[in-house]
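Quick one: structure tokens for this chain, please?
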Amino acid sequence: MVRLGFIIGFIALLGMLLSGLAAYRVHDQELTIDRIALARAIDVHASLVQDRLTERELLARVASGLFRAPSVIKPNMLEPLRSAIYAFKTDFVVASWIARLRPNELDAARAALAAAGFPNPTIRNFDDKPLDPAALSRPIDVLMDLEPRSDDTKALPGRAYDQDPVRGAMLARAKAEKRSVASDPIPLLRDNGAIGVIVAAPVIPEDATEPAGFITFSYELASLMLTNDDMSLFSVALKDPRKPDEELTASDQGIVSTRALSDTRVASSIRTVSFGGRDWQLSYYAKTNSVRRAEQTAVIVAAIGFAITAMVCGLFGYVAYNNLRLSREIQVRIGFERRLTAVIDELNHRVKNILAVIQSIVTRTLRHGSDIDVARELLIGRIHAMSNVVSLLSESQWQGVKLKGLFEARAIPHADRIAVTGPDIAVSARAAQSLSLLFFELASHSDEGLSLVGKHPHITANWTVTGEEPDAVFHFRWEESNTSEATRRADSDFGLILLDRVAPEALGGTAKRYFTDGSYVYELTAPMETVVDMTERDRTEKFSQPVRPVR
């Protein structure tokens, strides 16, 4: 009973340790998985945002490149570009043509806007206050045309944006740098409108150094950078470039608002995207607490582990207490009978396998044997080869044999003339039986007599292993020098079947044999999995796809 209590206590301690270890591993894995999933989702979102921004900046560049400005004061300058800018499908809010007009061109511009049907053709400031052309001494940037034309946009043409703190700075930078430039976040169309950004591309006529105007596209910030939904792992915020202590966020409905930066709210990750010649910082905030979630999962796993441990200990104690009443003699006898059954089953399997191989050897040797003496010699040699490999396997308890051991003199003829080279690998029992018969068949036909040069053939047998596990390949090569097709004993029908089909198929590989100018060569290629050790099922699957020899 004391020993039983000690065992139960040990099992309980081990169960608690394993439960704790499992809980720790689950906590670590859950935390890692959540962080990887969040990082991947953030990378995907940032990449999509960058693609959107690049596409929209490309639209501005293409539009400015296609634009022709014979007269900058025309109010329908976007008409030729309508099909091109709508083909991009970038969901812009407003596309506009802003012309740089000299003071003496303002009256003509007003008349053109009036003729185009715009409700307020007066040239005025960005806040709709009229401008006095006589008070101007330099060109100003005036909105002359836009797409689409609607009740919200028709009132905008005629405005001059030089004094606009956001649009004016954007146009001045685009004029100076002569490339597309993005504005700061700004309400679009009206003061309380959706917050967005504007990208302006200068239109520079040929042989000119100053832009004649600008093509601009306005985009809502929510759909451009701050897309959020209930299923996402994070929320996105854009750091306001004008206010370093604030950031812009979008709700599920796409409404952008401003919030102050907080020390208690730390971004999980920050990504930088480029748009309009400037860098924008996107801050990503995880919606769930990964650490807390991992801790909760670990607690559940630990509780389950402790419960299972208690159940196992109780069940084990109950079963062990009842089993103590059983006789040791019965236990010993049951164990003995089981071992005896296993030994008998294994012996039956081995004997049936060996008898089947010997039966096949006898049948195929005598079936086509025209000369009974030759057939008897071959039969005895093949049986000796089988006997040798069985002896080697018995010595190793059927765990495989060293490949060089199959070249012993008691197994094959002319063993003293065979130069054997190759790594001393241990082959499986199945492979050893096939290779033993293969080596005997090659050696038994290697010496019909002296060659034309008066020498016995010189035999080399070598093998190599190429590649890395599990794709390693076994290469075997048998070469008989100083021999020819005329001097070498012709292979028997059984030998040909063994060389060309039986041995390669048993190893799941391929073989070929041929004569050169002064030698006879046999090559065998097979996967190392079938040569060294595989279960019968795995070998059968490999046989359907034999490995081709490397040339």
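Confidence is low (pLDDT under 50) at residues 536-551.
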